[in-house]
């Protein structure tokens, strides 16, 4: 018999969540159509299929992070005996951007081939609901509107950066949507927002030799372990990233010389101030892209800019589902694919923060083991022991089940990913301390943690 609908499944959004869903459904034999469309950012940036992670998130961020680490390594190489003649090392920003963009283009290409192989149809257009089973979209030329019907719909349109509601913000500022393909060298950059996106951008800009300043409205890295967050901010400040604390931006104006004058206000002191930057980067959070979907036509319930779903990802309309960043109330632990977006979170911590553990279990019931550590590779370039810190938050009784592990130090993502599996398997302090360390790594220091916070002993090593 003829199917009632054109497709078994229409997926709106070709990012990590949408693509995973579309491909899986096609593997199961469903007839699948996936819409993916990127509205240009206010600065005019556009990109291809793959969503935030591939195009303007995790992937380019990791590449720029690597570029900045390499710059740091060249400086350290001198201490290790390399003759690096040009002491005034500067990156070729345009070449870096080109390399990063070429990689992204290749991923876009592979994604399209993969969809074709898996028989997922792909339409590069913005799909919107006409009714609960009908999606309407404009053809490539934009001249014609077409409709398709679907048995099931999955909404996976993700989000885009927010802009503050102040003069000049949209016209003169950029966001993480733009920085990875930015034509011009960023130069002196004001990063507004101290979430992980802001801090990551500030870190790689600093490593590449630009001068970022971070504007913090309240605290850095809200929601993360406080001690780790403050330590990270102190480390960044020590490495030359200034923080403008308890400050909000008021306006951005272009000066006659082309640079940007930013006026701001310190909410604690009441003082007004201003400074001049080459680039202003907003990293003040992200919003869900519900507005173009015509959700009321389908009857899908929303909460602000996000979609409300039940435990099975179903929206208020049973045959319409939502996954990824567009889902309300589950920012951190939506599908596994989205976890990739939390690189910094994973670089720093797995499990509970010390605050959460105290709140849930009571201060008397938890033990915190911690220590600074000087990895072997820190000695020759004389890097500070302050740049490597480990902390385990555990139950105080029995074998001391570990509730959270926190780490700041080299290759933190790799270290913490390994321990994440151990934590999921019910790691205890007893097991951790009886684990043989792989020498000489920094991760092995977790097997040697011996100082409790409760003891008040200095966690700094003697040498
Ligand atoms: P976050 O983690 O939401 O952080 C936003 C930061 O920007 C945070 O430090 C905020 O300070 C600050 N903020 C928010 N609004 C303003 C305004 N209007 N002015 C100045 N500063 C502001 O967002 P990210 O951009 O890091 O992106 C992470 C998201 O990506 C995450 O939510 C996931 O959904 C995916 P606050 O602490 O609120 O005072």
UniProtKB/TrEMBL annotation:
How is the cofactor bound, in the record's words?
Binds 1 FAD per subunit.
A biological process (GO) annotation for this entry? glutathione metabolic process
Residues in the active site? Answer: 439 (proton acceptor)
Protein's name according to its UniProt entry: Thioredoxin-disulfide reductase
Native organism: Drosophila gunungcola
Entries under PROSITE patterns matching the protein: PYRIDINE_REDOX_1
Domain called FAD/NAD(P)-binding: residue spans: 7-341
Which InterPro entries did the record assign?
FAD/NAD-bd_sf, FAD/NAD-binding_dom, FAD/NAD-linked_Rdtase_dimer_sf, GSHR/TRXR-like, Pyr_nuc-diS_OxRdtase, Pyr_nucl-diS_OxRdtase_dimer, Pyr_OxRdtase_I_AS
**Amino acids binding FAD:** 62, 127, 325
Q: Which GO terms describe its cellular component?
A: cytosol; mitochondrion
Upper taxonomic lineage: Eukaryota, Metazoa, Ecdysozoa, Arthropoda, Hexapoda
Q: Which family does it belong to?
A: Belongs to the class-I pyridine nucleotide-disulfide oxidoreductase family.
> Keywords assigned by UniProt?
Disulfide bond, FAD, Flavoprotein, NAD, Nucleotide-binding, Oxidoreductase, Redox-active center
Record GO terms (molecular function):
flavin adenine dinucleotide binding; glutathione-disulfide reductase (NADPH) activity
Which Pfam families does UniProt cross-reference here?
A: Pyr_redox_2, Pyr_redox_dim
């Amino acid at each position: 018999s003829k199917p009632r609908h054109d497709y078994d499944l229409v997926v709106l959004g070709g990012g990590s969540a949408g693509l995973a869903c579309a491909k899986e459904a096609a593997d199961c034999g469903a007839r699948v159509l996936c819409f993916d469309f990127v509205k240009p950012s206010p600065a005019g940036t556009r990109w291809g299929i793959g969503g935030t992670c591939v195009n303007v998130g995790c992937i380019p961020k990791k590449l720029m992070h690597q570029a900045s680490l390499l710059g740091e390594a060249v400086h350290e190489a001198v201490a290790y005996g390399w003759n690096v003649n040009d002491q005034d090392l500067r990156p070729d920003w345009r070449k870096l951007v080109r390399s990063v963009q070429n990689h992204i283009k290749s991923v876009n290409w592979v994604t399209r081939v993969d969809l074709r192989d898996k028989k997922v149809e792909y339409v590069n257009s913005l799909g919107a609901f006409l009714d609960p089973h009908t999606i309407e979209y404009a053809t490539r030329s934009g001249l014609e509107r077409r409709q398709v019907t679907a048995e099931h719909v999955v909404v996976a349109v993700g989000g885009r950066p927010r802009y503050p509601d102040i003069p000049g913000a949209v016209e003169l500022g950029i966001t993480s949507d733009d920085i990875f393909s930015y034509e011009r060298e960023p130069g002196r950059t004001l990063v507004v927002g101290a979430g992980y996106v802001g801090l990551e951008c500030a870190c790689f800009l600093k490593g590449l030799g630009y001068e970022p300043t971070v504007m913090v409205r309240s605290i850095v890295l809200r929601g993360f372990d406080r001690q780790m967050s403050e330590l990270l901010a102190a480390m960044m400040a020590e490495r030359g990233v200034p923080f403008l604390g308890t400050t909000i931006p008021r306006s951005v104006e272009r000066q006659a010389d082309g640079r940007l004058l930013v006026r701001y206000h310190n909410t604690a002191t009441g003082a007004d101030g201003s400074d001049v930057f080459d680039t202003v980067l907003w990293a003040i959070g992200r919003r869900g892209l519900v507005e173009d979907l015509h959700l009321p036509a389908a009857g899908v319930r929303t909460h602000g800019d996000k979609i409300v779903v039940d435990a099975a990802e179903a929206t208020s309309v049973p045959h319409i589902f939502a996954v990824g960043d567009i889902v309300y109330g589950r920012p951190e632990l939506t599908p596994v694919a989205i976890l990739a977006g939390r690189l910094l979170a994973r670089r720093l911590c797995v499990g509970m923060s010390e605050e959460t553990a105290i709140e849930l279990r009571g201060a008397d019931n938890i033990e915190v083991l911690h220590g600074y550590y000087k990895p072997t590779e820190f000695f020759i370039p004389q890097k500070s022991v302050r740049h490597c810190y480990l902390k385990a938050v555990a139950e105080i009784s029995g074998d001391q089940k570990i509730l959270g592990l926190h780490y700041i130090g080299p290759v933190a993502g790799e270290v913490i990913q390994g321990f994440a599996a151990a934590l999921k398997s019910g790691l205890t302090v007893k097991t951790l301390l009886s684990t043989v360390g792989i020498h000489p790594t920094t991760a092995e220091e977790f097997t040697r943690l011996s100082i409790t916070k409760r003891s008040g002993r200095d966690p700094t090593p003697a040498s």
